Amino acid sequence: MSCERTFVMLKPGTLERRLVGRILERLENCCLKIIALKLMRIPRDLAEEHYAEHRGKDFYPPLIDYITSSPVIVMVIEGENSIAKVRKIAGATNPMEALPGTIRGDFALTTKKNVIHASDSLESAQREINLFFKEEELIDYEVPNEKWIR
Ligand code: ATP
Ligand code: MG
After folding, report:
1. 3-state helix, strand, coil in the chain (%, to 5)
2. Is the full-model pTM beyond 0.70?
3. Which of 13, 53, 70, 147 has the fewest Cβ atoms surrounding its Cβ within 10 A?
4. What is the distance, to the nearest Å, from the Cα of residue 140 to the centroid of all Cα atoms in its chain?
5. Catalytic residues, which ones?
6. Site residues for ligand 1, CB cut-off 6 Å
7. Which domain, by its residues, includes 66?
């Protein structure tokens, strides 16, 4: 276990379907701490870079179209094991396989428009945080319950 930072994106469907509050509420649980958050429209070249690992796959062009179609919310979340924890809270890529109680299980309707992205490894998290945030945008602070989780 280690205190890690992970990158999270609430995809266009989250804002357009007015799900931001309900999804953020889940990410504030489990000892996770939001240390950066912004609303933005993703430029196409940044979207392509973010999902570069999927270049050449049939779902890549529609995926880029989707995440550039409308604003997103990007975040950095810090906490013990935050990478694996947020992936668990997000649920399986395909909403049909995502368990009830996960964000995708409860809110996503299709794999293509599955409402949330979360980094899948330490390397991806570092790469994605650097793509979307400057170091000075990551804000450290204490949460009152930190003494209960050490
Ligand atoms: P993300 O990277 O967005 O957190 P993930 O890590 O669960 O999702 P990936 O395999 O990295 O899944 O796929 C990236 C995104 O591409 C998925 O979130 C989904 O929107 C889209 N995608 C993946 N597989 C398919 C597919 N078979 N058909 C349509 N879209 C897909
Ligand atoms: Mg992925």
Report:
1. 40, 20, 40
2. yes
3. 147
4. 19
5. 117
6. 54, 59, 63, 93, 111-112, 114, 117-118, 120
7. 3-149
User: Which amino acid residue places its CA nearest to atom 7 of ligand 1?
Assistant: 93
Q: Identify the residue whose tokens are 């050490």.
A: 150
Q: Is the pLDDT of residue 149 over 80?
A: no
Nearest atom (ligand 1) to Cα of 93: 7
Domain count, the chain: 1
Kindly identify the ligand whose nearest atom is closest to the C-alpha of 113. Answer: 1
Query: Per residue in 10-42, pLDDT tens?
Result: 999 999 999 999 999 999 976 899 999 999 999
User: 1 pLDDT exceeds 80?
Assistant: no
Of 59, 87, 103, 107, which is best to mutate to test ligand 1, by the most ligand atoms within 8 angstroms of its C-beta? Answer: 59
Identify which of 93, 107, 132 to mutate to test ligand 1's pocket (most ligand atoms within 8 A of the CB): 93
Tokens of 64: 């880029």
Q: Give the number of other CB atoms < 10 A from CB of residue 126.
A: 15
How distant is the alpha carbon of residue 114 from its chain centre?
11
Helix or strand (DSSP H, E) at 85: helix 82-90
Instruction: Say what the pLDDT of residue 100 is.
Output: 96
